[in-house]
Amino acid sequence: MKLTAYLIDDGQIDIRPAPVERAWMEQTGERFAYRCLPLNIANVHGWEILCPSGFKAVWNGNADLDAITIAFEDPDQQPFAISHFGNGVLTFHVPCLFRTDAGYDLMAQGPINRPKDGISALSGIIETDWAPYTFTMNWIFTQPEVDVHFEKGEPFCHIFPVQRGYLAAVEPEIRQMSSEPKIAQQYKAWNESRRKFNTELKQPGSQAQAEGWQKTYYRGLLPDGSPAPVEDHSTRLRLRPFTPK
Known about the structure:
It is a single chain. This protein is α+β, with helices and mostly antiparallel strands. The protein folds into two domains: about 5-170, Deoxyuridine 5'-Triphosphate Nucleotidohydrolase, Chain A (Distorted Sandwich); about 175-220, no CATH class. It is built from five helices and 14 strands. It has helices at about 25, 35-45, 180-200, 205-210, 215-220, and strands at about 5, 15, 45-50, 55-60, 70, 80-85, 90-95, 95-100, 105-110, 120, 125, 135-140, 150, 155-165. It is globular. The two termini are about 15 Å apart.
C-alpha cells in the first residue's frame, strides 16, 4: 500500500522509519532490554516525525492558553509547538497532509517506548484515505512547573496505518486453558522450563548462566524446540523511508 505525505506550501518535514535504539535500553545491563523481541518490534513499528528545533516548555497548572510558556533554542524558528487548546495541552503542527489507501486510517501517537518526564503524548486515529485535513500531535502536561525539553531531531509523533473496521470484526472471548489440551501442555512445558532456567541462572557455571536468557520465542520455537507453525515469524522489521517524488 501507499502512504503519502503531501507537504504544505513546499514545507519541510523530518520523518524517518522509527529506529530500534532507545537511550534507556542502551543503559540496561549488557543492553539486556534488547533481548525482548516484542519491545524491539514495537520500537520500529512505524515512522517518527522529528522536531526541527529544540525548545523548552513549562506549564503553570492553569487552564488558559497562556499557561504554557515555550522557548525555542533557535530564535528564527517558526513555532511548530504552541498552546492551542488550553488545559495543559502542548500542540505540535504536522506540516503535511497524509494519504493512505482506501480503507486505511493513520494512527498518530507518541514515540513508542520513549517515556518523558512531566508530559504524556495523546493518540489519535485519522481517516487519511479521504480527509483533506491535516492533524495536530498533542501532548498533555502531567504536572505543573516542570521544565520539559524537546531536543532538535527528537521524535514528537509516531505514525503507522491501520485497517479501518478491523477491530470491530474481532470476536473476543475468554476460555479456560484446560479446554485446549494442546495449548495447556505447551504452556506447562514452557512454565516449567522457565522456572528451571531461572533457578539455574543463579548457579555459577551453569548452562543457563552461559546462555544468559531463553531464546525460544526470539527464535520462533515452541517449548520442545520445534519451529512455530507460522512462516512469517519476525525478529526484525525494516520500513522504507519516505522518498521525494
